[in-house]
Amino acid sequence: MNSRVAYIAFNTFREAVRDRVLYNLIAFALLLSGASILVGEISIDIERLVVVNLGLTAVSLFGVVIAIFIGIGLVSKEIDKKTLYTVLSRPVRRWEFIVGKFFGLTGTLVVNTFFMALGVLLALLYVAHKFETMDAWVLVALYFIVLQFLIVCALSLFFSTFSTPLMSAIFTFALFVIGSLSDDLRGFARITHGVGGWLATAIAYLVPNFSALNVISQVAHGDAIAGRLVLYNTAYALLYSAMAISGAVLIFQRRNLK
Amino acid sequence: MSSTRRVYTVATATLLLGMAGAIATIHAIDRVPRETVSQQALYLRSSTALRRLSLGYTGLLADIYWTRAVQYFGEQHHSGSGDFRLLAPLLEVTTELDPRLLPAYQFGANFLAPKPPNGAGLPGSALSLMKYGIAHNPDQWRLYYNLGFLYFTEFKDYPHAADAFAAGAKLPVTNEYMPILAARMAQHAGEFDTARMLWFTTYQSSKESQIRENAVEHLLALQVDEDVTHLEQVVEKYRLQTGHLPASMADLDRAGFIHGTPTDPKGHPYKLMAGGRIEVEDPKVLYFITKGLPPGMEPPQPGRIAEPRIAEPRIAEPRIAEPKSNSDSK
Hints:
Helix content of chain B: 55-70%
Shape of chain A: globular
Oligomer: heterodimer
Largest sheet of chain A: none
Largest interface: A-B, 25 and 21 residues
Mean pLDDT of chain A: 85
Strand order of the largest sheet of chain B: 1-2
Largest sheet of chain B: 2 strands, antiparallel
Strand content of chain B: under 5%
Radius of gyration of chain B: 26 Å
Structural class of chain B: mainly alpha
Number of helices of chain A: 12
């Protein structure tokens, strides 16, 4: 990685930590420890299932919310505080600024996810008293959640290059919702004909496919995840993020910052 | 007192009073007679709509609906209302959101079919739920067991019950009683032992407290029915031998037909009535019994009855020959 990109990424990470983003871990820890004690009381025979479902859903939703709310302010905050001009007056290119911000935000979320994953595994150990082989698939589900964050980070950054924070949050969240229903959207496209069908197909392929990245229910039942799916999901998340970041760079390059 | 200090004092007092007042109000609201949460309608019955609203997090939503189903049944059962109209849709939504949530099917088999107040009185819904479960989990013997159990207890459909148990017995992982139950259904033999085996398997294969309690009550009732039948046969034998009915249990003991005073599973002695009938001492605590009741009394059902339920009863294994199953794993 280019040293200027790395520097911006590191500073973005440091700023997020200073903004007390990692404080969400306390809320997460409280939620999971409370839930682990409660599920033992109310969900006889399916304690493991409930902890995996609840834990991974919480990791995913907490992360998406953080990605959106930090991502949307990454560019606008720098403009508002006039710090962007200081950065760009140095030998830093605009694309390096965007890519650095993306890696910084992604790094924050990876660290965040690591600690939340520890919480999920501890809760699992608490209710099941031991780890089983099938628990390894929980790690694959967590990896897919990180891939989901990559896309959400890229999208929020993309919108933040040309829109206000509020509108960026709305756009990103809307895409998250639509992307979570992408399977339904493709099903709808298949049964629609004519212009409507073309339009539905185009939208179905344009919005991010979050449904393929959600394997929480399968791993909760101890199902194995196919190696091919891991490979394809990785490729898809990297390609989609690269596409969104490229879009962000293109817009930011042309943006009049005066 | 400085103005800052005054603000702190007033704000703290208001905060504490507000909190206390809010708690008191909640208690007051709870005392107002109104429909409980469980009696409210189930606004979303479409699993497709719920699947979409969940944004793909269907596993967690299924767990929430499952917990709601168990709580709903528990509350309605405890109140003795006998109104379980939401149980079927709750279980259907749960299993459609997560077709592999096996405890939901077992719960449905035990509480959807029986008539109120012990269940929802919907054997058709229970049957559909089991068939849906088998279609999505064809390798689970418990679902075939539940299907056979329903055919036997609710429909008295022996051929279908035999088919279900036989299909479950063929699975690589099954229960030792499955082939025996299949054979018994085919022969219509030994009603007491068959029923005992069914309820014992239900008790053994579930960790859900409501299912286990229900199985225990049925096992105790079967014990009473069998004891009463046996004691009435003994009384008849005594009459044939002596030419008159015994005046008390002691007469039967002295004649060597019984040893001591026989007691029911709750420890109360059986009573010998005029005409040689046998009655239980306290029929209100023996749910589901069909024999030993005072004339005209309906079989008692669990519900509002205040007597304590037994915590962990001693349950004898069914009296059967050792099975010759293809696997004894469970």
